[in-house]
Amino acid sequence: MNNLTLLAIDTSTEACSVALLHKGEKTDITETAERSHTKRILPMVDEILSQSGLHLKQVDALVFGRGPGSFTGVRVGAGIAQGLALGADLPVVGISNLTAMAQAAYEQFQATQVITAIDARMNEIYFSQLKAEKVRSEFGEFLQWNEIIAEQVGAPTRLLEQLTALQGEWATVGTGWAAYDALQFLGQHTSITLPSARYMLSLALPMWYQKQVISAVDIEPVYLRNEVTWKKLPGRE
């Protein structure tokens, strides 16, 4: 595992982040860049690689946040990932932004039961309910997130309707909880509000070893909300 080098990028929300796994160590750079992802992400990639004395072609795989999130942000991330992967002939691992926040809750607070909610505007949220279990494989022990509620977009009441009686402690992550009063009193709120490329590295590791990678030409962003809907909403992106 110490010989593996992974580069992760994410532009799907107002957070713009890059992260690197190299020689068993993780480094990351995160900025709030809601309107300048396209200007910042490549310089951030160059910076994190130069800090470790690496070139892009020395990376084993590229990891990217596939969504959901801002329509423009998800599209930018997928396009940048595709360009980098094609240019350096790298395999790609796409990671759910919602699951990345759940992983952050585990690494920061040891939470294994997480409800995610990102504000999707228009009185809707992107959400999922996830439960973790430790899985042993020939490559070591990894955390696997199982969907209790599959990721989707809808009104906050849609999430509440799907939640059955919650047993045990459930952590909540994402911007959706503070954005809508209906969600204020559900679960145990954490300080995690946005996804980060750093936690995508942890999720990508077992996928790499299990050869769950794709080629650059097969990259597909996950919007959940379709492009037609976005075009009907002036000022939304």
Give a structural overview.
This protein has 7 helices and 10 strands. The protein is an alpha/beta fold and 237 residues long. Helices cover 32% and strands 31% of the residues. The longest helix is centred in the middle third of the chain and has 18 residues, at 71-88. It has a 5-stranded mixed beta sheet with strand order 3-2-1-4-5, sandwiched between helices. A 5-stranded mixed beta sheet has the order 8-7-6-9-10. It starts with 5 loop residues before the first strand and ends in a 6-residue tail after the last helix. Residues 31-162 form the Gcp-like domain. Belongs to the KAE1 / TsaD family. TsaB subfamily.
Concise summary:
The chain has 237 residues and is of the alpha/beta class.
Number of helices in the DSSP assignment: 7
For the biggest β-sheet, the strand order reads 3-2-1-4-5
> What can be said about the biggest beta sheet?
5 strands, mixed
Helix content: 25-40%
Give the percentage of residues in beta strands. 25-35%
How would you spell out the order of helices and strands? EEEHEHEHEEEHEHEHH
Indicate the overall shape.
Answer: globular
Structural class: alpha/beta
Low-confidence runs of at least 5 consecutive residues? 232-237
Q: What is the strand tally?
A: 10
Give the termini distance in whole angstroms.
39 Å
Rg of Cα set: 17 Å
Averaged pLDDT: 92
